């Protein structure tokens, strides 16, 4: 596979959801590759501890911006903050997200809407605001700019009892793949990352007590970076061979069978 290693050294990467799990994993990887970082999530103490750790390990300069991305003015505020600090973003990792479990009718409507605001609206708004910076970085520093959006294997089929989450991730996958095409001549590396279950705080936030066979955060980061290091980054990365096979099988299977198998997972 022709390679063009992703090298963000000397540029700045913004990671949402950096206080935990997969987002924190990307922060370590990008810091190791020489990027300065902007770390965004609500838990300031976690972000500050991460910034100290990254500075000690890799000499990384991190800017911590505690923010609730579901707030109506969060993205304009964040962009204004970046402008005031004179920070241009070369890589955007949209990792902030959560899921909810339960039959839709019994779930809390406010929580479902909050999920859409984070997984879909904030991701779209932030991508729209920063895409010109990303494309500009790609033009000036070949192989240094990337857009990484966290979708999920939930994007490939409807999921009874996680209906809104699966629909939100189907959106992220479709949206990101379209952007991959629209920006393909710019040098920007664009991909939607689709892991299955990963061992993070995700399950407890979603309210799950079921033990799943989980991927590690390291595996997600490794698969993402293998994709970013390719000369042509693929529009989607499915993490894990079994997950890739299942995603392909879903396309060929009758929809009712897919629904009944997906429903058994919760
Ligand atoms: N773990 C899995 O099984 C799995 C599988 C497939 C896809 N994914 C996707 O991967 C991404 C990362 O999930 P994860 O596994 O790393 O879960 P996680 O450990 O729960 O991390 C979620 C991150 O999102 C942030 N966040 C939540 N609400 C926020 C808000 N209102 N404003 C700003 N930040 C917010 C959290 O930080 P604060 O609480 O500090 O705000 C945290 O940093 C998500 O998009 C998820 O859907 C996860």
UniProtKB/TrEMBL annotation:
Q: Which GO terms describe its cellular component?
A: membrane
Q: Does the keyword Glycoprotein apply?
A: no
InterPro entries annotated for this entry? NAD(P)-bd_dom_sf, SDR_fam
User: Would the keyword Phosphoprotein be found if you checked this record's keyword annotation?
Assistant: no
> What GO annotations for molecular function exist for this entry?
oxidoreductase activity
Q: Supply the alphabetized keyword list.
A: Oxidoreductase
| Pfam families noted in UniProt | adh_short (PF00106)
- Superkingdom to which the source organism belongs: Bacteria
Q: Which family does it belong to?
A: Belongs to the short-chain dehydrogenases/reductases (SDR) family.
Record protein name field: SDR family oxidoreductase
* Species of origin: Cryobacterium psychrophilum
């Amino acid at each position: 596979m022709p390679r063009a290693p992703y090298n963000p050294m000397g540029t700045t990467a913004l990671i949402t959801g950096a206080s935990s799990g997969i987002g924190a994993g990307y922060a370590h990887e990008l810091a190791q590759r020489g990027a300065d970082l902007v770390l965004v999530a609500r838990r300031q103490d976690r972000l500050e501890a991460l910034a100290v750790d990254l500075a000690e390990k890799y000499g990384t300069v991190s800017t911590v911006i505690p923010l609730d991305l579901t707030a109506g003015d969060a993205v304009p505020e964040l962009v204004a903050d970046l402008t005031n600090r004179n920070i241009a973003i070369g890589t955007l990792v949209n990792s902030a997200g959560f899921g909810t479990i339960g039959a839709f009718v019994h779930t809390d409507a406010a929580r479902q809407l909050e999920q859409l605001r984070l997984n879909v609206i904030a991701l779209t708004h932030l991508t729209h605001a920063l895409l010109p910076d990303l494309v500009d970085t790609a033009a000036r520093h070949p192989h240094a700019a990337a857009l990484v959006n966290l979708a999920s294997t939930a994007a490939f089929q409807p999921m009874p009892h996680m209906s809104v989450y699966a629909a939100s991730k189907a959106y992220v996958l479709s949206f990101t793949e379209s952007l991959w095409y629209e920006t393909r001549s710019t040098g920007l590396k664009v991909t939607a990352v689709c892991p299955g279950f990963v061992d993070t705080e995700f399950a407890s936030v979603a309210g799950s007590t079921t033990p799943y066979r989980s991927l590690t955060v390291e595996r997600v980061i490794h698969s993402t970076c293998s994709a970013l290091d390719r000369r042509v980054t693929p529009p989607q990365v499915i993490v894990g061979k079994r997950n890739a096979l299942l995603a392909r099988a879903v396309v060929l299977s009758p929809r009712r069978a897919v629904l009944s198998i997906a429903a058994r997972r919760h």
